[in-house]
């Protein structure tokens, strides 16, 4: 098998596995938030929501910084 084809197949497999892990993480966090909502544990719900907002804002800030410095 050609090395280029092997590297491409390994890359696609790696991206697929990363996607599966990401989807499982989203599913687990959504289940935790749902359980916290049903049990009335709003502090856990607010902490998770706050952490999600912090991660999203850091992601956006990184993208804006990279765009401002002409790296992307």
Fold and architecture overview:
With 72 residues, this protein is mainly alpha-helical. It has one domain (3-68). It is 89% helix and 0% strand.
With helices defined by DSSP (H or I, 4 residues minimum), what is the helix count?
A: 2
Strand count, sense and closure of the main sheet? none
- Return the string of H and E elements: HH
How many strands? 0
The unreliable regions are none
What's the end-to-end separation, in Å? 35 Å
Given helix and strand content, the structural type is mainly alpha
Radius of gyration: 19 Å
> What characteristic shape results from the CA principal axes?
flat
Strand percentage lies at under 5%
Tell me the domain tally.
1
The average pLDDT is 94
Q: What percentage of residues falls in helices of 4 or more residues?
A: over 70%
Topology:
Elements: H1 3-39, H2 42-68
Helix pairs in contact: 1-2
Write a compact overview of the structure shown.
This protein has 72 residues and is mostly helical. It has helices spanning 3-39, 42-68.
């Amino acid at each position: 098998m050609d090395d280029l084809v092997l590297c491409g197949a390994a890359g696609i497999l790696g991206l697929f596995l990363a996607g599966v892990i990401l989807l499982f993480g989203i599913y687990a966090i959504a289940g935790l938030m749902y359980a916290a909502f049903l049990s009335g544990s709003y502090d856990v719900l607010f902490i998770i929501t706050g952490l999600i907002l912090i991660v999203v804002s850091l992601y956006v800030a990184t993208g804006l910084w990279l765009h401002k410095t002409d790296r992307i």
